[in-house]
């Protein structure tokens, strides 16, 4: 396995780059959101090498976490490299983890090529493989059964990162807190996403 490719950017387009490594040009598929330097500048991508009957293809990512999300998606039945790349192009690692933790089908079906059944399968199969963000999952409920100060703000910020408006996020979190007062942040996000489901 080739863990990463480090060389000079020789060319690039929508969803692909060519990296020159000592005179050899590697054509690599990349997420649409990949930030790249100028032509001729050095670049390093963490890679996955897919061996197929018709040849070898490389997929490159700016960070290891994004590559790990891509690989986890490939383990889901019915998800191939093209779809996995589309998912990580539209959902950064932290957002993908939030979507999975909150079982938010609506966010996944926004990704081109992902239908409702596939989205549900992704949520089911990655629930344990891609847990919620560490910073959030470490929060716990207070001993008196109330949500500690700041957790509601963490939940609101998480919803904002998924594209919801300030008013939508705060209203959903408020309703979620009322229904599940002892919830920690991941549970609060999940409950809030259920409140938002009819909106999206």
Describe, in plain words, how this protein is organized in 3D.
Strand 1 and strand 2 (16-21) form a beta hairpin. The protein contains nine helices and five strands; from the N terminus they run βββββααααααααα. Residues 134-149 have low confidence and may be disordered. The chain folds into three domains: 4-61, OB fold (Dihydrolipoamide Acetyltransferase, E2P) (Beta Barrel), CATH 2.40.50; 65-126, 5' to 3' exonuclease, C-terminal subdomain (DNA polymerase, domain 1, Orthogonal Bundle), CATH 1.10.150.20; 134-195, Helicase, Ruva Protein, domain 3 (Orthogonal Bundle). The chain has a five-stranded mixed β-barrel. The protein is elongated, with a radius of gyration of 19 Å. 43% of the residues lie in helices and 20% in strands. The chain has helices at 64-74, 81-90, 93-101, 105-108, 116-126, 134-137, 151-161, 166-179, 185-196, and strands spanning 4-13, 16-21, 24-29, 42-52, 55-61. The chain has 200 residues and is of the alpha+beta class.
Describe the protein's topology.
Layout: E1 4-13, E2 16-21, E3 24-29, E4 42-52, E5 55-61, H1 64-74, H2 81-90, H3 93-101, H4 105-108, H5 116-126, H6 134-137, H7 151-161, H8 166-179, H9 185-196
Parallel strand pairs: 3-5
Antiparallel strand pairs: 1-2, 1-4, 2-3, 4-5
Helix pairs in contact: 1-2, 7-8, 7-9, 8-9
GO biological process, one term: DNA repair
Domain Helix-hairpin-helix DNA-binding motif class: 71-90, 106-125
Protein name: Holliday junction branch migration complex subunit RuvA
Structural descriptors:
alpha+beta; OB fold (Dihydrolipoamide Acetyltransferase, E2P); DNA polymerase, domain 1; Helicase, Ruva Protein, domain 3; 3 domains; 5-stranded mixed beta barrel; 9 helices; helicase; Holliday junction branch migration complex subunit RuvA; DNA damage; DNA-binding; cytoplasm
């Amino acid at each position: 396995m080739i863990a990463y490719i480090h060389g000079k950017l020789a060319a690039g387009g929508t969803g692909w780059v060519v990296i020159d490594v000592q005179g050899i040009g590697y054509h690599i598929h990349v997420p649409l959101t990949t930030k790249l330097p100028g032509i001729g500048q050095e670049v390093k991508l963490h890679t996955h090498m897919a061996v197929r009957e018709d040849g070898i293809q490389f997929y490159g990512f700016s960070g290891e976490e994004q590559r790990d999300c891509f690989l986890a998606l490939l383990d889901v039945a019915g998800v191939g490299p093209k779809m996995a790349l589309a998912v990580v192009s539209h959902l950064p690692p932290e957002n993908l983890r939030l979507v999975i933790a909150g079982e938010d089908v609506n966010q996944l079906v926004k990704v081109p090529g992902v239908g409702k059944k596939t989205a549900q399968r992704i949520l089911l199969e990655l629930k344990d493989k891609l847990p919620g963000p560490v910073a959030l999952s470490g929060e716990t409920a207070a001993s008196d059964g109330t949500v500690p100060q700041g957790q509601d703000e963490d939940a609101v910020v998480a919803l904002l990162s998924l594209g919801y408006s300030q008013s939508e996020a705060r209203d959903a979190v408020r309703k979620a807190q009322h229904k599940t007062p002892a919830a920690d942040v991941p549970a609060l996000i999940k409950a809030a996403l259920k409140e938002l489901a009819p909106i999206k």
